[in-house]
Every structure is written in structure tokens, then in C-alpha cells.
């Protein structure tokens, strides 16, 4: 850490992290514990293996897990926000259905859960910061070259006309409306805490425990088994390392200079040819790794706030730059002879 200014939330304070067993959330907890915070993590069902993991890594009384099985209950978070100084809300329910009616219900589910935790946070004078995990899709998923994303960029689904479209995506709408409506709630209710969001792109890197779902990293490890599905439905994203994402969440929580910000976690363009080349370097004797799609072109454009995020990593964690894609993949995949 190179930052010398006092933290908005001092080390030793207790921080609530929702969805503690998730890929990104588990890394956020790891970073917070490394920085000296105490963590209360939420899970939907008992997960003693996760408690054991953090106790083994960081010792007893540093991380506790509490159950919040249903975010839809009005008082779902009322107990777990007691004694908390800050919140990082990662666990936002996302649907698998694609029908219009399913999407509408799923969006309402996501937004209601987000509002419930904001409302609970606002009842506690001790809570000074709330950070939400969003997604780059909330700013608008680029489909071709020449795109430009900025802090005021939003996916088209926030417009009234978009709700009538038959070409709808449950994931995009839940992520977009989940963040958009949270900002609207904060604007309307003016709570006593500072509110920030983090918008990661395609997140890769180490999975902390075998029982933690790898999320987007799972698509990469699937390539090691010959699964080429990501080539079809995840064309040409940008990448970011999971530790960089976790650190940006921590910065959004403690940095006095980060106020009412959307932090864009996007290191640079990714093409599958590059990923396949690195995977074959890591596992040179793996015949199941398939060739990447032919004639790929990187999704070139501008993610203007990404430069701000990179500077935050430099200022607060001493990084010289975003973690390179090769380092992310090498750190996240076991060698195999």
C-alpha cells in the first residue's frame, strides 16, 4: 500500500461482503483481510468449508459467515448490518430464463434485493461506504470497433423504448437496472453513506478454492476440456484480473478520494487466439485445447474511466499497470504434463 491518507473506513473495521462464496467476492474478502479489516460474509446456505479456508489463511476471528437465504425479504439484511462500517454487495441474483415475462420478474428481483440492502445500510449510522458490484454490460456491451464507454454510459435497456424490444437479455437488464436503480435510490434518499460501484469486464485469474465457482474463469478452464462454447457466446471481450477487480472494490470502500464513482475494471482487449496460445504454453501436452475461431479481430474502442481505475491500483497498491493476461491465466491454471 502506498496511500498515506487516512482511510474513509479505518483498518480493523468490520465490513460486510455479500455472496462470500462467489469468485469475485472471495477475492474481495481475501484482499480486505490482507489489509487488516474484519469481514462478515453472507451465504445462502451453510458453508463450513469456506469458514475453514479463511481461518486457515488468516486465523480465527477475522472472518465470520452469516446466512441470508432470501434477499427479497424486507428485513433480509437488518441483522447482518449491525456493527458494520462498510458494505460490498456482490451477490445479486441473476436469472437463467430468457422470456420477456421472466426478464421483467428477474429485474424486479434484482432491484428489490439491492434496495433492501441499501435501505438496511441507511438505518446504521456506523456505515460510511457501500459498494456495489456491477458489470461492464451496464454501461453498454460493445458489438463492434470504435465504441466509447464513459462514466455516464448506460446500456440501452434503461430507456423506456427498450422494454418493448423482443431482443432482450436477462443478464444485461438485471445488471444494468440493478446498478441504475441503486443510483436512483441513493439520489432520492440521500443516505448517510458514500456510494460507489465497480464495473468489471471478463474476469480471469486464480480461483481460491475448488468449491468456489469460477464464473467467467470457468469458461477459460473449460477450454482445457475441449469446450469451445465461449467462442460462440462470448465474442471478443476485454479482460481484467480478479485480484485487480477485488482491489478496486477495496479502494472504492476505503479511499477518501473515491466518492460517488463508477469504477471501470477493464484492462484491455482479449482475443481467443491469445488465450489458446497461453493455455497451450501452460499445458503443452493437452490435446483437448481446440483452435480459436479464425479471423478474430479485437474489440477496439475506448473505456475512458479505465485509466482512472489503473491509477487507483498504482496509488493504493503500488501496481505499475493492470495485471497482464498471461499472468492471470498462468496464476489461475495448473500445469499438466
From TrEMBL:
<comment type="similarity">
    <text>Belongs to the NAD(P)-dependent epimerase/dehydratase family. Dihydroflavonol-4-reductase subfamily.</text>
</comment>
<dbReference type="InterPro" id="IPR036291">
    <property type="entry name" value="NAD(P)-bd_dom_sf"/>
</dbReference>
<feature type="domain" description="NAD-dependent epimerase/dehydratase">
    <location>
        <begin position="15"/>
        <end position="189"/>
    </location>
</feature>
<dbReference type="InterPro" id="IPR001509">
    <property type="entry name" value="Epimerase_deHydtase"/>
</dbReference>
<dbReference type="InterPro" id="IPR050425">
    <property type="entry name" value="NAD(P)_dehydrat-like"/>
</dbReference>
<keyword id="KW-0560">Oxidoreductase</keyword>
<dbReference type="Pfam" id="PF01370">
    <property type="entry name" value="Epimerase"/>
</dbReference>
<dbReference type="GO" id="GO:0016616">
    <property type="term" value="F:oxidoreductase activity, acting on the CH-OH group of donors, NAD or NADP as acceptor"/>
</dbReference>
<protein>
    <submittedName>
        <fullName>3-beta hydroxysteroid dehydrogenase/isomerase</fullName>
    </submittedName>
</protein>
Amino acid at each position: 500500500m502506498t496511500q498515506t491518507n487516512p482511510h474513509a473506513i479505518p483498518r480493523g473495521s468490520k465490513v460486510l461482503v455479500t455472496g462470500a462464496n462467489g469468485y469475485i467476492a472471495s477475492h474481495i474478502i481475501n484482499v480486505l483481510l490482507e489489509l487488516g479489516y474484519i469481514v462478515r460474509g453472507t451465504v445462502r446456505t451453510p458453508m463450513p468449508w469456506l469458514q475453514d479456508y479463511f481461518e486457515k489463511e488468516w486465523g480465527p476471528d477475522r472472518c465470520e459467515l452469516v446466512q441470508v437465504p432470501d434477499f427479497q425479504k424486507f428485513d433480509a439484511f437488518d441483522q447482518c448490518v449491525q456493527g458494520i462500517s462498510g458494505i460490498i454487495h456482490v451477490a445479486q441474483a441473476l436469472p437463467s430464463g430468457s422470456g420477456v415475462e421472466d426478464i421483467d420478474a428477474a429485474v424486479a428481483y434484482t432491484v428489490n434485493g439491492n434496495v433492501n440492502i441499501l435501505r438496511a445500510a441507511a438505518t446504521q449510522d456506523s456505515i460510511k461506504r457501500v459498494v456495489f458490484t456491477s458489470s461492464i454490460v451496464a454501461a453498454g456491451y460493445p458489438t463492434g470497433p470504435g465504441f466509447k464507454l464513459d462514466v455516464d454510459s448506460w446500456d440501452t435497456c434503461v430507456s423506456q423504448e427498450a422494454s418493448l424490444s423482443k431482443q432482450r437479455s436477462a443478464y444485461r437488464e438485471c445488471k444494468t437496472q440493478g446498478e441504475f436503480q441503486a443510483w436512483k435510490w441513493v439520489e432520492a434518499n440521500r443516505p448517510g453513506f458514500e456510494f460507489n460501484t465497480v464495473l468489471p469486464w471478463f474476469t480471469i485469474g486464480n480461483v481460491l478454492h475448488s468449491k468456489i465457482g469460477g464464473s467467467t474463469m470457468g469458461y477459460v478452464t473449460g477450454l482445457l476440456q475441449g469446450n469451445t462454447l465461449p467462442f460462440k457466446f462470448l465474442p471478443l471481450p476485454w479482460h481484467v484480473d480478479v485480484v485487480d477487480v477485488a482491489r478496486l472494490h477495496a479502494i472504492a470502500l476505503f479511499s477518501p478520494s473515491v466518492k460517488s464513482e463508477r469504477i471501470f475494471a477493464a484492462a484491455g482487449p482479449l482475443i481467443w487466439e491469445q488465450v489458446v496460445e497461453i493455455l497451450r504454453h501452460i499445458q503443452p501436452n493437452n490435446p483437448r485445447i481446440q483452435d480459436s475461431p479464425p479471423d478474430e479481430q479485437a474489440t477496439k474502442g475506448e473505456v475512458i474511466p479505465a485509466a482512472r481505475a489503473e491509477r487507483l491500483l498504482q496509488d493504493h497498491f503500488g501496481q505499475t499497470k493492470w495485471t497482464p493476461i498471461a499472468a492471470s491465466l498462468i496464476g489461475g491454471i495448473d500445469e499438466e504434463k
